[in-house]
UniProtKB/TrEMBL annotation:
<dbReference type="GO" id="GO:0005524">
    <property type="term" value="F:ATP binding"/>
</dbReference>
<dbReference type="InterPro" id="IPR003593">
    <property type="entry name" value="AAA+_ATPase"/>
</dbReference>
<dbReference type="GO" id="GO:0015807">
    <property type="term" value="P:L-amino acid transport"/>
</dbReference>
<feature type="domain" description="ABC transporter">
    <location>
        <begin position="20"/>
        <end position="251"/>
    </location>
</feature>
<dbReference type="Pfam" id="PF00005">
    <property type="entry name" value="ABC_tran"/>
</dbReference>
<dbReference type="GO" id="GO:0015658">
    <property type="term" value="F:branched-chain amino acid transmembrane transporter activity"/>
</dbReference>
<keyword id="KW-0547">Nucleotide-binding</keyword>
<dbReference type="InterPro" id="IPR027417">
    <property type="entry name" value="P-loop_NTPase"/>
</dbReference>
<feature type="region of interest" description="Disordered">
    <location>
        <begin position="263"/>
        <end position="302"/>
    </location>
</feature>
<dbReference type="InterPro" id="IPR052156">
    <property type="entry name" value="BCAA_Transport_ATP-bd_LivF"/>
</dbReference>
<keyword id="KW-0813">Transport</keyword>
<keyword id="KW-0029">Amino-acid transport</keyword>
<dbReference type="GO" id="GO:0016887">
    <property type="term" value="F:ATP hydrolysis activity"/>
</dbReference>
<feature type="compositionally biased region" description="Low complexity">
    <location>
        <begin position="264"/>
        <end position="281"/>
    </location>
</feature>
<keyword id="KW-0067">ATP-binding</keyword>
<comment type="similarity">
    <text>Belongs to the ABC transporter superfamily.</text>
</comment>
<dbReference type="InterPro" id="IPR017871">
    <property type="entry name" value="ABC_transporter-like_CS"/>
</dbReference>
Length: 302
């Protein structure tokens, strides 16, 4: 076991080789100004990993560094054991990494279908096959595929952006705040959609401001602070950790109880979903919001 897979840094991570491994990254935008000051993260096959932390902690910067959009000054990044540090984004897509930015994530003048076509511009022959898989994952898009993306709501655009990123059949999907700017019900849908993608076999890293909701769906999460790892662990453990609650989830004493209740509600929903294998087992949002079909469609892999 290497130092970077040490339990304290990656608490709760499964054994074995990570799929994606960021080791002690130092990165930034302006010369001489580092935003990431030694950040590490592992993503194992099939995991859904969250990145949370206060505003300006460097969460989005870390995601962009993983996707070759911010220069990594020190440290290493590997994908399935291969060095990919500072590899260009288009090369990373080719290697199976997808990225969904927080904003400007669709081509507004193109139709939904044309947006999805852009997702496989490197491998156009795959379009029909992948379109079928992706529309199976997002059946909401089937009837609307000829509509212009610019006419869609924020939540619908987010769905198209995720669908487009899935078109090249990534093994890793990086999501930058998929719930940003959405109403509570639409936020729930974005989180459940994220889990649906993960259940379909895609390993996911999600950056979120809505920390409590993210922790509910994540296998594990990293708390960043000032560009460094502050805490890590299984999502539901972090939700009930008084230090994490005090520093990042809210300072009210009652939040401990609220977080516990949220964690228990999430665990109960998971247990119910596992017990019920019928094709439409709904999962309730934590605040009693609209149930959304969270059942995993057939795996997107061959
Ligand atoms: N393009 C950029 N050029 C220069 N500085 C930037 C740029 N983007 C972000 N920063 C700076 O990097 C720091 C970290 O920003 P980042 O967006 O990664 O934080 P974050 O944790 O995702 O925050 P939030 O939760 O508010 O989105 C901030 O101080 C921000 O001003």
């Amino acid at each position: 076991m290497t130092e970077t897979t040490a339990p304290a840094l990656h608490r709760g991570a499964p054994a074995g080789e990570p799929l994606l491994h960021a080791d002690d990254l130092v990165a930034g935008y302006l010369p001489g100004v580092n935003i990431l000051n030694g950040c590490s993260l592992v993503l194992h096959p099939g995991e859904l990993v969250g990145i949370i932390g206060p505003n300006g902690a460097g969460k989005s910067t870390l995601l962009k560094a993983l996707f070759g959009l911010v220069n990594i000054r020190e440290g290493h990044l590997t994908l399935a054991g291969q060095e990919i540090t500072n590899m260009r984004a288009d090369a990373l897509v080719h290697k199976g990494v997808g990225f969904v930015p927080q904003t400007n994530n669709v081509f507004p003048s193109l139709t939904i279908e044309e947006n999805l076509q852009m997702g496989v511009y490197q491998t156009p022959a795959k379009f029909s096959e992948r379109l079928e898989v992706v529309l199976h994952l997002f059946p909401e898009l089937v009837k609307r595929r000829k509509q212009r993306a610019g006419a869609l709501s924020g939540g619908e655009r987010q769905m198209v952006a995720m669908a487009r990123a899935l078109m090249p059949e990534p093994s890793v999907l990086l999501l930058d705040e998929p719930s940003a700017g959405l109403s509570p019900v639409r936020q729930d849908e974005a989180f459940l959609r994220t889990r649906r993608i993960n259940k379909a076999g895609v390993s996911v890293i999600i950056v979120e401001q809505n920390a409590r909701r993210a922790l509910q769906i994540c296998d594990r999460a990293y708390v960043l602070d000032q560009g460094r790892n502050a805490y890590s662990g299984p999502g539901r453990e972090l939700m009930t950790d008084p230090k994490v609650i005090e520093l990042y989830l809210g300072t009210l004493a009652t939040d401990v109880d609220a977080a516990r209740a949220d964690a228990e509600a999430g665990a109960a929903a998971d247990a119910a979903a596992q017990a019920d294998t019928s094709p439409a087992a709904p999962v309730d949002g934590p605040e009693g919001t609209t149930p959304v079909d969270d059942e995993a469609p057939p795996a997107s892999k061959d």
